[in-house]
Each structure stands twice: as structure tokens, then as C-alpha cells.
Amino acid sequence: NAGVTQTPKFQVLKTGQSMTLQCAQDMNHNSMYWYRQDPGMGLRLIYYSASEGTTDKGEVPNGYNVSRLNKREFSLRLESAAPSQTSVYFCASCRDRGNEQFFGPGTRLTVL
Amino acid sequence: LAKTTQPISMDSYEGQEVNITCSHNNIATNDYITWYQQFPSQGPRFIIQGYKTKVTNEVASLFIPADRKSSTLSLPRVSLSDTAVYYCLVGEGSGAGSYQLTFGKGTKLSVIP
Question: Given pLDDT bands bounded at 50, 70 and 90, which one contains residue B103?
């Protein structure tokens, strides 16, 4: 089991560029999440997907879109990157709401 | 979502027991208390979850008083490898409720040789 995998590990973008962060889990989990973590801060929820085919906004959704491609994959898209989106992005999954969340290794994104 | 308050940082010597207390005055009836651990440059990792009284697993114990307005994570005999940030979260757990977890700033534990 690879658990939760994320690609890429690092990315540098210029302001206005777009990109998609990929996340996949092989644990047959129903729920998946995207968080961002700014330096010295806790994690903030961007979007989540309770089950395949559904997505909902979290605490900080502005500037992001998501796609739950299938049960395994949940992608996060930045349509027009801004320096304020410089952060580490973590994907997580869990069997069902309220259960233990398993986190990926993170994507470190810098927007210049 | 219930708000939690925990110390920003703590220091401990190797081999000591460490207790990190979290305050959650507006915890709801259906809320569970969950603790995660995060090492630098890694995603958080689940440590323990509980609803009331005491829960123990192979790495930690969680003590929850009767009023459930606070909880204490206890790490027995810490080692240098326990240096990390510890997050206390409150939400409906065990398959019962909220999809959203709120991570505060956590407690940065530094273990000293």
C-alpha cells in the first residue's frame, strides 16, 4: 500500500499561471480532503469530497477548484496562481467522516 | 466547529512523561477529541481519539474529564523522535458527523537530550 500519494512534490509558478495538484489513495477510502499549511500555522481545509461524485467547500476555497475524478483520485486546480497561494498543500483521505485521516507527503508550492 | 486552545510550545527532557492539555469549552455532545502529530515537512499523523474518560493505545493516552471541556494528551517517556507539533481537534468522529476538522496552531514539543 502506497497510502496517499501527491504529485508534484515541489512547484514554482509565476503569478497568473495555472496548475493542477494530483492526489491518489489506494486504501479504498470514501472521503478525501485538500488542506493548505502556511509557515508556522495549522492546516486549513480548502475543499473536501465526502464520496465519489461530491465536493464541498472548506474554510478557504477561493482561488481553487477540485475534481473527484474517481474514488481514488482527487485533484486541486489553481486557475490563476497568486503569491498568497504560496504554501504547502496536503491531501488526505479517510474511510468515512470522522475517522482517522491519512495524509500525503505534501506539495510545496511557490508563486512568484 | 468547536474551537480549541492549547499551549504554543513545550519543552521536555528525554525519558520524561509529557502532558499536553487542550481546552475546548464549547464541545458539543456528539464531538470526539482527536490528536494528530506532525513532523517537519510531513503531513499530520493520527495519534489517538476519544470521547470520554481515558483512552490508551501503544503510543499515548488521552484523558478526558467528565465535563469534556478539556483533554490531556499524555506521552510516556518521550524521546528525541517525539519532537513535533501536536494538534488537538474537536469534531464529530467515529463515522458520525462533520467532514471538517479545524487544525489550530498546535503545540510544538521540543524534547531535550
Answer: confident
pLDDT less than 50: residues of chain A: none
With CA atoms as reference, report the closest residue to A100 among B36, B29, B81.
B36
pLDDT at B100 over 80: no
CB contact under 8 A, A40 and B105: yes
Note whether B72 and B63 are within 8 A (CB).
yes
Contact A34, A89 (CB under 8 A): yes
* Nearest residue on chain B to A58, alpha-carbon basis: B100
Q: State the smallest CA–CA distance between residue A24 and chain B in angstroms.
A: 15
Looking at residue B8, the DSSP 8-state letter turns out to be S
CA distance A109 to A67: 19
Span between the terminal Cα atoms of chain B, in Å? 38
CA distance B9 to B31: 25
Give whole-number Cα distances, A9 to A90, B32, B37, in Å: 10, 33, 21
Residue B96 has pLDDT above 60, yes or no: no
Inform me whether the C-beta atom of residue A43 falls under 8 Å from chain B C-beta atoms: yes
- Residue B26 corresponds to which cell in the numbers above? 464549547
Q: Do B16 and B67 meet the contact criterion of CB atoms below 8 Å apart? A: no
Q: Is there a contact between B32 and A45 if contact means CB atoms under 8 Å apart?
A: no
Which residue, among B23, B18, B49, has the nearest Cα to B36 in the 3D structure? B49
pLDDT score at A9: 96
Residue B40 neighbours by CB under 8 Å, 6+ apart: none
